[in-house]
From TrEMBL:
Origin superkingdom: Eukaryota
Ranges annotated as spanning the membrane: none
BP terms from Gene Ontology: actin filament polymerization; endosome fission; endosome organization; regulation of actin nucleation
GO cellular component: endosome; WASH complex
PANTHER family (alphabetical): WASH COMPLEX SUBUNIT 5
Pfam families, alphabetized: Strumpellin (PF10266)
Protein's UniProt name: Uncharacterized protein
Organism, scientific name: Polypedilum vanderplanki
InterPro entries cross-referenced by the UniProt entry: WASH_strumpellin
Assigned protein family: Belongs to the strumpellin family.
Length: 1185
């Protein structure tokens, strides 16, 4: 039997795994007509016909190769898990077949198929083994659609072919699509066989041919016997269908292995319908997966005929009427039992059988109504649903009331019964002691020694009571129950006879004591008859697994009741516990088999599923709270006047605003009522998870807070890219509105935190940080090859909403939209940055667009984490731009010999000209010389100008953000900033010491990462020192190219500070200055204008990536030599400076200022006398006339 038990254990584990992984199907593998991006990568079984062609196509297309690599890196592990699950189903079918064949061939000496069916436990297990295989097939097709299975298997084959075994072909054939395409109007958990092709599902079930003798034996056993002895628990004939509900589900599933019975065996099908389906037609197959028999058997002649003959329309009306009467009766009965003070230990002992009968009736009624009135039907079977609802006064509320009442009744009864069983010995001893006490009083009464009450002395009666007391003392629970019960009954009868014979009824005192004794003796009989089996029977009677998914239909009515009466959550707790009992079905065999690890895993899965539902139910309370909060926010923000520090007496009435304050107080009280409703629920163990009502409330509030804040951020931060300037765009206004919304929500949240019994500020900070971090992570995913699939910031219990991408928008989230909108407004092609004012100006209108206060507005609207998030997005953008530069130059052209030689020649030529200039005072025109190299490079080497400019623009913003963070941090948390700064200095000192002496300790990488996160939060970092990607160690040709590249763009540069300095034209300016300003304006208004400050930052950032080489210093040296040659030639020939020279000097001085390199280094290249000459020519000269 151990082998068959192992089959059932494995079967339940496989089904659980299929249900688990069905929730993990990647979105890319799901059928979506709107997303065709991965069609060439993720294919169904058509791929196997074009393997070579498709692989070559992917290999030769860079875009497809990137997508392919992304799928491989992101989903390799999950694909393996899916394949192993599919293979497990395939192997289960084969192993079951092999086991049956071995039994038939006599491989097991003492066990045959016949002997297994003769054994009570064996009969259960062998039937379950086939049934579980059928459920596996159904769950596989229902929860993981055929087209998705094919795509998963093809992808597994492509990415794991080197590890795949010989069975992959068989698994693919076994799991190929069946064509099952359910109607979306029904829940996915409803099996709809009519939605597939003809021959479904019998053809699907026959993919592994099973021994038909074995199948026939299983079907015959299920059809004719009560293998689980459930009829003992439901003795009433009308309850036969609920007693045999498990068998009917097994029979339904197993009949697909023998379709001939469904199609042709009318007699057999009539027998089945008369026994199992004579009063119900919607059944639960496994853990709430339902099927409508009228639809499922529509294509099977014999089954359809038998079912329709059994369930005629008039019969359905009669059944419905009977069940409706029973429903109303049970509601009233349970309502009476649940009145306070009725259902106690004494009442239960006396009326246990009656109460169990009521529970049985209630569960039958609840099951019938939940299943047969559910909206699970097609056009053909709709008539039966209409009959159920039209033939009586159908009301969903009645079902809900019954479910709540029976759940509460079962919980109370089980609690009392469990207490009685656990303390049976103690209670038995107490009863005996109390009986003996009463008998001693009676003995004393009839001894004549009690002076207070005058009773005639009766020695015989006294001795009789004494004998009874001794007999009572000798009764023990360890004795045979029947013997003890018989003695107790005899004693009760004897007391009745004694009372009548001696006329003790006339003596009030004696009569009272005898009545008490007989009552206690009756209680002892009831206590004696309570067995451990009562809990098992109640568990079986109260099975609620059929409603595992259908309970969702009650969600609206539960929400409505909670909004009206939050305290009803106490009753709902009983419903949650009743739902939790459904876990017994998939876990029983696994527990018997001793699979501790599988047992824990499956228990966690089903417990988590149930906890999700509980959270969904309770979430209506936080939702209602936030509705009230919204009203409070409106009143506090827009109507309630802020009290001044000092208030004049005559204005007290004006600021009192009593009506508004009364409304706020009323709303706050309503919030506290909802809070009390949740907290009144006790802690509840659901499966293996304990539900704490306080934690549930806090999680619910967090969920609503996240939803409201994320929605506000998403709705406000939407921009129209067609609008050209900030006034039209209203970016500042949007940020101000967002600041107002966030501030109002935060202040109100802090106001009500005490009424919600939560730490408002902590929750606010944690959830804002989570929202921002999650959206930043999602935005940064677009820059990563290996994307984060399961974010650590996302949560099942407190999910962050994922909003759809806006049409024609590159950004995935509101953080990306905000970051890109800022870049769009400060686009260096249409704006110029004035570093002295830290502001951007429009190059056409000369109006200020963004000033130094802008980052403070960002801080107020998206808080510190938002600024850090934008900074992170810009970091990824810069890294992508640098990768493009690396790909365009270092990986491609600079490896070609002709370009390498050209750039090496340029360096040697510049060095030669530098040496020659010392010997020859007159040199040839350097402008023409450099132009030759510029022209050659422009023809063959890609232009990286756009990358340099965008890198520089983002570097400016990173500087601004860092400055804002460190400024606000020094104001709001000075101690933290100082501590982090000191700690950072200490770590740097340790790193330097370790670098000089390896024997000294080095800070751990984890510590450095943690400290770096905190430093970024307070702005203690220098963005210009950041290394984004690792460039090759030796790329001197690259540095030479950047010099040529910079020379080629000198005449298009303009520096904002120069425009600020020379912002007027007047006769007091030197002609050179007037001309210089005119040239600058011409550059700015030309199509080739380049912001010099942005360009400088782009160059600096680019060279920082060569952190192992000092290329920036070499660049200044080589570029400075070129400038010096042009400057010297220009002064000798024209006595005025060309724009290329002034821009070149400004560029180098900007680089020196930003990087902190000493100016003396530059003066060694260009003598200070020449630099002074440049300054002199661009200085205001007073009019001497």
């Amino acid at each position: 039997m151990e082998k068959i038990l192992e089959f059932t254990s494995i079967g339940n584990a496989i089904i659980s795994e299929l249900l688990k992984i069905s929730e993990l199907i990647p979105i890319e593998f799901k059928t979506n007509d709107g997303n065709r991006r991965y069609d060439e990568i993720i294919m169904d079984f058509k791929y196997f016909r074009i393997i070579e062609t498709q692989e070559k196509k992917i290999e030769n297309d860079e875009h497809l190769s990137d997508l392919d690599e992304y799928i491989r890196e992101s989903y390799s592990k999950i694909l393996l898990r899916f394949y192993l699950a599919f293979e497990s189903v395939f192997e289960y079918g084969n192993n079951l077949n092999n086991f049956i064949n071995d039994l038939n061939e006599g491989a097991f000496i003492q066990t045959t198929l016949y002997s297994i069916f003769q054994d009570e436990e064996g009969r259960q297990l062998i039937c379950e083994s086939l049934y579980l295989y059928a459920v596996m097939l159904l769950v596989l097709d229902i929860f993981i659609p055929g087209d998705v299975r094919e795509k998963l298997l093809v992808s597994y084959y492509r990415y794991h072919s080197q590890n795949s075994d010989s069975s992959i072909d068989d698994v693919c054939k076994f799991c190929r699509s069946t064509g099952y395409n359910p109607n979306n109007q029904f829940p996915i958990t409803h099996f709809q066989p009519l939605s597939s092709t003809k021959g479904y599902p019998e053809n699907y079930f026959s993919r592994i041919p099973l021994d038909q003798t074995f199948v026939s034996n299983v079907i015959e056993t299920l059809k004719s016997e009560d293998i689980y002895h459930q009829m003992q628990k439901f003795p009433a004939p009308e309850h036969r269908t609920i007693a045999l509900a498990s068998q009917s589900a097994m029979l339904f599933a197993c009949l697909y292995f023998q379709p001939d019975t469904l199609m042709n065996q009318v007699k057999d099908m009539r027998e089945i319908c008369d026994k199992f389906f004579y009063n119900n037609w919607i059944i639960s197959i496994y853990m709430g997966v339902t099927v409508n028999l009228f639809d499922a058997w529509d294509n099977y002649k014999a089954a359809k005929t038998a079912l329709i003959n059994t369930l005629e329309q008039q019969t359905v009306k009669d059944i419905t009427a009977t069940n409706y009467q029973n429903l109303r009766k049970m509601i009233e009965t349970t309502r009476g039992l649940l009145k306070e003070g009725v259902l106690n230990e004494e009442f239960l002992l006396k009326n246990l059988e009656k109460i169990v009968k009521i529970i049985r009736e209630c569960n039958f009624s609840a099951r019938w109504w939940i299943l047969n009135s559910s909206n699970i039907f097609t056009n053909k079977s709709k008539i039966y649903n209409n009959l159920v609802k039209s033939s009586v006064k159908f009301d969903f509320q009645d079902q809900y009331d019954l479910i709540l009442n029976i759940s509460q009744l079962e919980l109370i009864v089980k609690g009392i019964a469990k207490d009685l069983l656990e303390n049976k010995e103690t209670k038995w001893s107490n009863f005996k002691s109390e009986v003996r006490e009463r008998l001693e009083e009676l003995m004393l009464l009839f001894s004549g020694e009690k002076s207070v009450i005058k009773v005639e002395k009766n020695e015989k009666l006294k001795l009789w009571f004494e004998d009874i007391s001794k007999e009572i003392s000798m009764l023990e629970l360890s004795q045979k129950p029947r013997t003890v019960e018989k003695k107790l009954i005899q004693m009760i009868e004897a007391f009745s006879e004694v009372q009548e014979y001696h006329n003790l009824m006339t003596n009030a005192h004696a009569k009272q004591r005898i009545d008490e004794v007989t009552s206690m003796l009756n209680s002892m009989i009831h206590l004696l008859n309570i067995k451990d089996s009562i809990l098992v029977d109640l568990q079986a009677i109260g099975d609620f697994s059929y409603a595992w998914y259908l309970i969702e239909e009650f969600t609206p009515i539960i929400h409505e009741s909670l909004q009206k009466t939050p305290n009803i959550l106490i009753k709902l707790r009983a419903l949650f516990i009743k739902l939790a009992t459904a876990l017994e079905i998939p876990l029983m065999r696994i527990n018997q088999c001793g699979g501790a690890e599988e047992f824990a895993s499956i228990t966690r899965y089903y417990s988590n599923e149930l906890v999700k539902y509980v959270r969904k139910i309770i979430q209506i309370i936080p939702h209602s709270i936030f509705k009230l909060l919204k009203s409070i926010i409106e009143l506090q923000t827009n109507h309630l006047k802020e009290l001044p520090e000092k208030l004049e007496k005559d204005k007290v009435k004006e600021f009192a605003q009593l009506d508004i304050r009364y409304q706020i107080a009323k709303l706050t009280f309503n919030i506290s009522v909802f809070t009390d409703g949740v907290i009144s629920m006790e802690k509840t163990l659901v499966g293996v998870i304990e539900l704490d009502p306080k934690q549930l409330l806090e999680d619910g509030i967090r969920k609503e807070l996240v939803k409201h804040v994320a929605s506000a951020l998403n709705e406000v931060l939407q921009f129209n890219e067609k609008q050209k300037n900030v006034k039209e765009l209203q970016l500042i206004e949007k940020l101000n509105n967002l600041s107002k919304i966030i501030a109002g929500l935060r202040s109100t949240f802090e106001y009500v935190q005490d009424y919600l019994n939560i730490s408002g500020l902590i929750i606010w900070k944690e959830e804002i940080m989570r929202i921002i971090n999650f959206n930043v992570e999602q935005e940064c995913n677009s820059f990563k090859k290996k994307k984060v699939q399961f974010s650590r910031f996302q949560s099942d219990s407190i999910p962050i909403p994922i909003f759809p991408q806006l049409p024609n928008d590159q950004s995935l989230t509101f953080m990306g939209r905000l970051a890109r909108e800022i870049l769009r407004i400060t686009d260096p092609r249409v704006t110029i940055y004035v570093d002295l004012l830290t502001a951007w100006y429009d190059i056409k209108t000369h109006t200020e667009l963004i000033d130094q206060k802008f980052t403070n507005k960002l801080l107020n609207s998206i808080e510190v984490q938002g600024l850090v998030g934008i900074d992170k997005i810009y970091s990824f953008m810069i890294a992508e731009d640098l990768e493009n530069v690396h790909k365009m130059l270092l990986k491609q052209l600079l490896k070609e010999k002709q370009w390498t030689e050209l750039l090496q020649k340029f360096k040697s030529d510049v060095d030669a000209r530098r040496l020659n200039s010392k010997d020859k005072p007159k040199i040839e025109n350097p402008f023409k010389f450099y132009q030759i190299y510029i022209n050659k490079c422009n023809k063959g080497i890609p232009n990286i100008l756009s990358q340099i400019m965008t890198i520089g623009q983002k570097a400016i913003w990173r500087n601004h953000i860092a400055h804002e963070l460190v400024t606000s941090s020094r104001i709001n948390c000075r101690s933290l900033v100082n501590s982090l700064s000191a700690f950072n200095d200490a770590l740097l000192y340790e790193l330097r010491c370790h670098e000089l002496d390896n024997s000294k300790p080095k800070p751990s990488a984890q510590l450095l990462l943690e400290v770096n996160k905190h430093l970024e939060m307070v702005g203690l970092y220098n963005p210009l020192e950041k290394v984004y990607i690792k460039m090759p160690k030796s790329s001197n040709e690259f540095m030479n190219f950047i010099v040529i590249f910079t020379l080629s763009h000198l005449n298009h540069l303009a520096f904002g500070r120069n425009l600020l300095k020379y912002n007027k034209t007047s006769s007091i300016y030197a002609p050179a200055i007037i001309k210089h300003r005119k040239v600058l304006l011409e550059i700015i208004h030309s199509n080739k204008f380049l912001d010099g400050h942005v360009f400088a930052l782009g160059i600096i950032t680019l060279f920082r990536q060569f952190y192992e080489n000092n290329y920036l210093m070499e660049f200044i040296d080589l570029f400075g030599s070129c400038l010096f040659e042009m400057l010297e030639y220009n002064l000798n020939s024209k006595h005025e400076l060309a724009i290329e020279i002034t821009n070149g000097i400004d560029l180098i001085e900007t680089i020196l200022t930003l990087t902190g390199i000493e100016r003396g280094f530059f003066e060694e290249i260009i003598p200070s006398t020449l630099l002074d000459q440049r300054d002199y020519l661009l200085t205001i000269i007073p009019n001497m006339n």
